[in-house]
Design goal:
Layout (H helix, E strand, L loop, with lengths): L5 E6 L7 H8 L5 E4 L8 E5 L2 E5 L12 E4 L4 E2 L1 H12 L9 E4 L3 E2 L2 H14 L11 H9 L14 H18 L8 E2 L2 E2 H15 L3 E3 L1 H10 L4 E4 L24 H7 L6 E9 L2 E3 L12 H10 L11 E3 L1 E2 H11 L3 E5 L9 E10 L2 E3 L11 E8 L16 H14 L3 E5 L7 E3 L1
Bound molecules: guanosine-5'-diphosphate, 6-O-phosphoryl inosine monophosphate and magnesium ion.
């Protein structure tokens, strides 16, 4: 059996592009689905058989029988949130223990990481990042500062002692930040209550397969198994190349898959970049094509652009091809997947940003260091003004929509290989 490569699904805007739907759609073609970065800051929506599922930590292949789902070393786990997700899945007569494997090296988000996240956001005042406050920044900080706790630690006798030592460090910091005990509340629960649930989660996870998943994946590739890696967040939230400091704390571009699963660059196969037919962003930070007018409102209302887990309204704007070319470059995207074009079915015209100007001068590149005062150069295209959600074949899509897709391919030099025309699994066309 020939050795396989790992294919990737990445979000190539600011997150919420529809990654979850596509991992679920494509999971039937793969044997293993693996998350490699981020944590419960993600909210991945899957829709089939009239039910909508939202996953935060669990890979989006979990509903497929006979598939294995790996939470890789690059992912952060909050045992309480994961426990809650596992409980929700059991309601569908699925035993997740049979389908899920945890890397022994995945780091844990402690309850006090979440408090630190809240304290740091509060300190930033109007410069706040708009974090999901799931503890992502502080937990990755402890990981890189070499003080974190890992899944492999939970089955060791000194786990509780290590936990208490790290918690004591955190509470010291919280006091230093003036974040006093009256504010030690997480998801409306006092710290002690959240902690008790957190340890229930730890107890459950200790019964799962906890493995050196880098070896597991290596053996799987050698055995010819097909592996799909599921990204979280989006490339413009990448800690290196995103709109820093308004980013998340992990590598959301293709590079994250190597460190987050322990595979070599030579083992990366196809790279699917998922993008919305317009742009959205939740939280603060630059957004060159943002709309503050009735068009933006229409995108938000018609697109249901409210956070999957937080319910926060998403900022909306036109598709930005300068940004898209940048993120395609960063990850070596081989295939594009477009989602949510159906949201614009009744738009008279659709605009696309093909360039920027600053101080009257054209800019060819997306430069995250220098986005202040940028003006998008918009090209107007004719709307298709036809419902596309029930269309089953690419050749039946309206002419104006196909022209819009061809325009994107021409400007990005990357084929749009898959078209999503609605949230359901079945509303998917292969070009
Ligand atoms: P993810 O974080 O990238 O997995 O995306 P989210 O789940 O946060 O947000 C995407 C939203 O768009 C979800 O509510 C999906 O059900 C929905 N969605 C995905 N594809 C389409 C599509 O083609 N059309 C419409 N109307 N909704 C879609
Ligand atoms: P999925 O996987 C959209 C945003 C937050 C905030 C910034 C930092 O569903 O696409 P963090 O909690 O990581 O400290 O937040 O990143 N953010 C997301 N936006 N989708 C996500 O995930 C996101 N995860 C984080 O809103 O601006
Ligand atoms: Mg999401």
């Amino acid at each position: 059996m020939a050795r396989t490569k790992v294919d990737l699904i990445l979000g190539i805007q600011w997150g919420d592009e529809g990654k979850g739907k596509f991992v679920d759609v494509m999971a039937s073609e793969y044997d293993i689905i693996a998350r490699f970065q981020g944590g419960p800051n993600a909210g991945h929506t899957l829709e089939f058989n009239g039910i909508k599922h939202i996953l935060q930590t669990i890979p989006s292949g979990i509903f497929h029988e006979g598939k294995e789902n790996i939470i890789g070393n690059g992912v952060l786990i909050d045992p309480h949130i994961l426990h809650r997700e596992l409980t929700a899945i059991r309601k569908f007569d699925i035993e997740p223990k049979e389908r899920l494997i945890l890397s022994d090296k995945a780091h844990l988000i402690l309850p006090t990481h979440r408090l630190l996240d809240a304290a740091l956001e509060a300190q930033k005042g109007d410069k706040k990042i708009g974090s999901t406050v799931k503890g992502i920044g502080p937990a990755y900080t402890d990981k890189t500062a070499r003080g974190g706790l890992r899944v492999g630690d939970i089955i060791r006798p000194d786990f509780k002692r290590k936990y208490e030592a790290l918690k004591a460090q955190h509470t010291g910091l919280l006091k230093h930040y003036g974040f006093d005990e009256s504010k030690w509340v997480i998801d409306n629960m006092p710290l002690a209550e959240y902690e008790a649930k957190w340890f229930e989660g730890v107890e459950e996870l200790s019964g799962y397969r906890i493995l050196a998943t880098e070896y597991y994946l290596e053996e799987a590739m050698n055995a010819g198994k097909r592996i799909l890696a599921e990204g979280a967040q989006g490339s413009l939230l990448d800690v290196e190349f995103g709109t820093y400091p308004f980013v998340t704390s992990s590598n959301t571009t293709a590079s994250g898959v190597c460190s987050g699963l322990g595979i070599s660059p030579a083992s990366v196969g196809r790279v699917y970049g998922v993008f919305k037919a317009y742009c959205t962003r939740v939280g603060s930070g630059p957004f060159p094509t943002e709309l503050h007018d009735a068009w933006g409102e229409r995108l938000r209302e018609q697109g249901g652009e409210y956070g999957s887990t937080t319910g926060r309204p998403r900022r909306c704007g036109w598709l930005d091809l300068v940004a898209l070319r940048y993120t395609i470059m960063l990850s070596g995207v081989t295939d594009l997947i477009v989602t949510k074009a159906d949201v614009m079915d009744d738009f008279e015209e659709i605009k696309v940003c093909c360039g920027y100007k600053k101080d009257g001068k054209p800019l060819a590149q997306f430069s995250p260091m220098d986005l202040d005062g940028i003006e998008p150069e918009l090209t107007a295209m004719k709307g298709w003004r036809t419902p596309i959600s029930d269309i089953k074949r690419v050749e039946d899509l309206p002419e104006a929509f196909r022209a819009y897709l061809a325009f994107i391919t021409e400007k990005t030099h990357t084929p749009v290989s898959i078209i999503s025309v609605g949230p359901n699994r079945l509303q998917t066309l292969m070009a």
